[in-house]
Specification:
The protein is of the alpha/beta class and 447 residues long. The protein folds into two domains: 203 residues, Rossmann fold, CATH 3.40.50; 240 residues, NAD(P)-binding Rossmann-like Domain (Rossmann fold), CATH 3.40.50.720. The chain is built from 19 helices and 14 strands. Strands 3-2-1-4-5-6 form a six-stranded parallel β-sheet, sandwiched between helices. A six-stranded parallel β-sheet has the order 11-10-9-12-13-14. A two-stranded parallel sheet has the order 7-8. The protein is globular and about 70 Å long. It starts with a strand and ends in a 6-residue tail after the last strand. It binds uridine-5'-diphosphate-xylopyranose. The site of uridine-5'-diphosphate-xylopyranose has 20 residues, from helix 10.
């Protein structure tokens, strides 16, 4: 009989995973503890912006006309335990307040609530990003709590999806990593992922700690690559070099590769910043802190970029105070094709300038509601044109394709001064300069 799957936690990760499992042909039951999320998902609505996700949900959510009916949602733990053969835990692990370590309270609560009801054989599969050692601890907890005892097993299966590409990354993952303690658990997960594996996704079987570490190692590597190129941008700024050319040139070396070498205001979001910090904290607990001290530097290079963007803006405006200066900010989300503003470099820069007296007006294609909620005192405009009208300087801080398609000549007629600073090295300098703009980018010569 086909496996029945449950997904616990319906944020970016869980909502996408649930829809993807239904797409792969499984009967799926999703659970969340937030009633509003469950109500929305049951109507086939996604609580965040993620390209393609709403279509996929609507294709499968029971009760929606023409759907397969394979996907349902609930808030009832007993129902989930009764329904599922495989339970994916997809709740978030944010950074703890005032500490580097990650907050495991959601994962712990989810596993405990589920385990208490597990009266039949099942595989619990952790997907959340957790400190190494968590799986071992949670396996013991499940054994303690589950009425079915040893018939319930744990596996760890980290998730690597990127926001903006969540659906594609989930259905066609680069690799599937499973940390298991038995052949039975491996066999079950091979069954779950038979389709992507059949289409060529590598299936890597490990122990618990390795599976947990793969995720944090991958994110640390990506963060390191971005901070490396941003460090090169700092040197280029000092030496008069061009970091975009430098990145292109080193990227042709296959051992280096051209991806994740875009210099600018750096990385943000709900993953990379908190993951490298949690990794450092965990290494410290394990007595291996020296191994990861370099991540401290990665973090500080990254955070320095935001301040550098503020200073570049100040300098472009003639130095001195921001008082009375009108600053248009294009982009609020931490990356394009997402409405996520968590630890967004764009919003951080906008906020710093605002707090120093600048009159900041922000426009973002999808992130306006979240940005307003996080930073209500900033000015907001309903379009790029409206944000730029009368501005003394325009800051391009999130590289939405909508901004690359702007007509520099038309925008120039609206701006107070034709001055644009590209915090993402993503606009075409030639086009903007030809339209009479002073274009400046991070780590690149002035003209
Ligand atoms: C990341 C990982 O890529 C993903 O595998 C993991 O599962 C979760 O964390 P995500 O947070 O969606 O995914 O964003 P990502 O695409 O990695 O970008 C992170 C940040 O780096 C963004 O703020 C982006 O603007 C920035 N970035 C990326 C750069 O500054 N330069 C680059 O060259 C690439």
């Amino acid at each position: 009989m086909a496996l029945k799957i449950t997904v616990i936690g319906t944020g970016y990760l869980g909502a996408t995973h649930a829809a993807a499992m239904a797409e792969l042909g499984f009967e799926v039951l999703g659970l969340d503890v937030v009633p509003e999320k469950i109500e929305m998902l049951t109507r086939g609505e996604v609580p965040m912006y993620e390209p393609g996700l709403e279509e996929l949900l609507r294709k499968h959510v029971a009760g929606i006309e023409g759907s397969t009916g394979r996907l349902r949602f609930t808030m009832d733990w007993a129902e989930v335990a009764e329904f599922g053969d495989v339970h994916f835990v997809c709740v978030n692990t944010p950074q703890k307040h005032g500490e580097y370590a990650c907050d495991m309270s959601y994962v712990d609560a989810a596993v405990e609530s589920l385990a208490k009801h597990l009266g039949k054989p099942a595989l619990v599969v952790g997907k959340s990003t957790v400190p190494v050692g968590s799986a071992e601890r949670l396996a013991a907890r499940i054994l303690e709590l589950a009425p079915a005892g040893g018939e319930v097993e744990l596996a760890w299966n980290p998730e690597f999806l990127r926001e903006g590409f969540a659906v594609g990354d989930t259905l066609h993952p680069d690799r599937i990593v499973v940390g298991v303690r038995s052949d039975r658990a491996e066999k079950t997960l091979r069954e779950v992922y038979a389709t992507p594996v059949g289409q060529g996704s590598p299936f890597v079987v490990t122990d618990f700690p390795t599976a947990e570490l793969v995720k944090t190692a991958a994110n640390s590597f990506l963060a390191t690559k971005i901070s490396f190129i941003n460090a090169m941008a700092e040197v280029c700024e000092a030496a008069g070099g061009d970091v975009a050319k430098l990145a292109e040139a080193i990227g042709y070396d296959e051992r280096i590769g051209s991806k994740f070498l875009r210099a600018g205001i750096g990385f943000g979001g709900g993953c990379l910043p908190k993951d490298i910090r949690a990794f450092m904290a965990r290494a410290g607990e394990l007595g291996a802190d020296q191994a990861l001290t370099f991540l401290r530097e990665i973090d500080s290079i990254n955070m320095r970029r935001r301040g550098q963007m503020v200073e570049m803006t100040r300098e472009a405006l003639g130095g001195g105070s921001f008082l009375g200066k009108r600053v248009a900010v294009l982009g609020a989300t931490f990356k394009p094709d997402s409405d996520d503003v968590r630890d967004s470099p764009a919003l951080n820069v906008a906020g710093q300038i605002h707090l120093q007296g600048g009159q900041v007006t922000v426009y973002d294609p999808k992130g306006m509601d979240n940005a307003r909620r996080l930073f209500p005192t900033l000015g907001y405009a309903e379009s790029a044109d409206a944000a730029v009208r009368g501005a003394d300087v325009v800051l391009h801080l999130t590289e939405w394709s909508e901004f690359r398609e702007l007509d520099p000549a038309a925008l120039g007629a609206l701006a107070g001064t034709r001055l644009i600073l590209d915090g993402r090295n993503a606009l075409d300098p030639v086009l903007w300069r030809e339209a009479g703009w002073t274009y400046r980018a991070m780590g690149r010569p002035a003209a």
